[in-house]
């Protein structure tokens, strides 16, 4: 009965007036309540059960929940559930339902009677649609249906005016509803991995949109990205797995854009429209076929993070040191044989990740990187490091696995950097 008395004590500290008339708790209040992990105990102490966490308990079915009338958060991830109980609507104060990684093929129709529901997460299931009447859940703020079997996105979803995050990646959705302007509050939209060929013109009305994932869709960029240039708050754009030949002026007009993901894109060279975007802070070029980065990349004077992993780069531009704001540089699993001396001009660099290349040496200028915290060099052809490495006094980690460095040199490196975790 320990949970009972703890829960009773918490209940008495909460606003008695509020609880007597309305049991809906704030996030702060919920953080003070007991989390029940045993269903039988939760039912026995139903008056005090606001959070029920039954994650990874190998459940194949969920018994009657009608007694849990004050339940506000329900966590069911990692079970083997094929459905949820029809009487779930008796839990009228439910604010969050999280049922990822189960075997659901549908959601109960009575779920649409949960008028306080704010979060619905059902990713990695077998759902083919949301229940009819989902628009009745007017308080929904986040819907996560990634990795299901949805073939369409019902029009009534677009009437959810409080919706802030909608994630429906990796389903079988072929088109979006024509009218999206009902999403007055939408900030994040992920439709990646669906066979969507065209964006509706109404996407230009999503004035609050900040994050947009379009990667691995069937969109044809030869027609550009119409309508996106009118999104004043868009700060993150994912175009992974697409052909960039048609990528033109729209990116330049995205004045708030800070993060651009071009992973696994098909391109002969980095489009000028990318290097002309001087407000960009993060550029992801993983798994591309680029052999080199253009010298014009130094136009990205606001760039803080550059990722070029699993590529075919054989060199870096001599001008790389002009990226004065760069903090993280990751060029793993490429074919670099050397670094330009200008690398030492990246005085804000904190992390340099170069594992799985063909480097035989490092330039002396590496010692100028006074703010370096992590230097990763595994699986290269290094036989020694320059003496200037001793100047990296802020270095926390130096990783040298699978390099032909002699033991005497390794001991010398450890003596140079007594406070650094040197691993080899």
Can you characterise this structure?
This protein is mostly beta strands and 424 residues long. It folds into three domains: 1-117, Ribonuclease Inhibitor (Leucine-rich repeat, LRR (right-handed beta-alpha superhelix)); 150-290, Leucine-rich repeat, LRR (right-handed beta-alpha superhelix), CATH 3.80.10; 302-424, Leucine-rich repeat, LRR (right-handed beta-alpha superhelix) (Alpha-Beta Horseshoe), CATH 3.80.10. 10% of the residues lie in helices and 12% in strands. The chain is built from six helices and 18 strands. β1 (35-36), α4 and β2 form a beta-alpha-beta unit. The longest helix is centred in the N-terminal third of the chain and has 12 residues, at 2-13.
Helix tally equals: 6
Instruction: Tell me the CATH architecture of the largest domain.
Output: Alpha-Beta Horseshoe
Overall morphology: globular
The tally of structural domains comes to: 3
CATH T-level fold name of the largest domain: Leucine-rich repeat, LRR (right-handed beta-alpha superhelix)
Total E-strand runs: 18
* CATH class category name of the largest domain: Alpha Beta
What is the alpha-carbon Rg in Å? Answer: 27 Å
Q: Encode the helix/strand succession as letters.
A: HHHEHEEEEEEEEEEHEEEEEEHE
Mean pLDDT: 91
Flag low-confidence runs. 4-21
End-to-end distance, in Å?
Answer: 53 Å
Main structural class: mainly beta
Q: Describe the biggest sheet?
A: 18 strands, parallel
Strand content: 5-15%
Q: What percent of residues adopt helix (DSSP H or I)?
A: under 10%
Task: Report the CATH superfamily of the largest domain.
Answer: Ribonuclease Inhibitor
């Amino acid at each position: 009965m320990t949970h009972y008395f703890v829960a009773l004590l918490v209940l008495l500290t909460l606003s008695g007036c509020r609880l007597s008339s309305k049991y809906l708790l704030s996030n702060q209040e919920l953080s003070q309540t007991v989390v029940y992990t045993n269903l039988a105990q939760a039912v026995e102490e139903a008056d005090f059960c606001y959070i029920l966490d039954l994650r990874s308990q190998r459940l194949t079915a969920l018994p009657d929940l009608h007694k849990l009338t004050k339940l506000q958060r329900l966590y069911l991830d990692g079970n083997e559930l094929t459905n949820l109980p029809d009487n779930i609507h008796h839990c009228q104060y439910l604010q969050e339902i999280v049922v990822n990684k189960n075997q659901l093929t549908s959601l109960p129709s009575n779920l649409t009677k949960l008028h306080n529901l704010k979060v619905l997460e059902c990713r990695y299931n077998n759902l083919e649609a949301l229940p009819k009447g989902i628009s009745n859940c007017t308080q929904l703020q986040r819907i996560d249906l990634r990795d299901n079997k949805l073939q369409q996105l019902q029009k009534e979803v677009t009437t959810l005016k409080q919706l802030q995050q909608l994630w429906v990646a990796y389903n079988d959705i072929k088109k979006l509803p024509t009218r999206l302007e009902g999403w007055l509050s939408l900030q994040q939209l992920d439709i990646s991995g669906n066979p969507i060929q065209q964006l509706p013109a109404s996407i230009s009305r999503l004035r609050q949109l900040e994050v947009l994932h379009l990667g691995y869709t069937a969109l044809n960029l030869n027609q550009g990205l119409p309508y996106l240039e009118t999104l004043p708050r868009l700060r993150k754009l994912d175009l992974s797995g697409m052909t960039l030949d048609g990528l033109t002026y729209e990116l330049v007009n995205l004045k708030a854009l800070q993060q651009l993901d071009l992973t696994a894109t098909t391109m002969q060279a980095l489009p000028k429209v990318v290097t002309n975007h001087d407000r960009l802070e993060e550029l992801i070029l993983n798994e591309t076929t680029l052999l080199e980065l253009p010298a014009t990349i130094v136009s990205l004077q606001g760039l803080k993070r550059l990722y070029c992993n699993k590529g075919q780069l054989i060199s870096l531009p001599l001008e790389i040191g002009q990226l004065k704001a760069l903090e993280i540089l990751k060029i793993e699993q490429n074919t670099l044989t050397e670094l330009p001396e200008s690398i030492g001009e990246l005085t804000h660099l904190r992390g340099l990740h170069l594992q799985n290349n063909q480097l035989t040496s490092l330039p002396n200028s590496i010692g100028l990187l006074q703010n370096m915290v992590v230097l990763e060099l595994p699986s290269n052809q290094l036989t020694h490091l320059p003496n200037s490495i001793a100047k990296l006094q802020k270095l926390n980690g130096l990783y040298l696995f699978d390099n032909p460095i002699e033991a005497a040199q390794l001991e010398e490196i450890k003596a140079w950097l007594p406070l650094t975790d040197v691993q080899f």
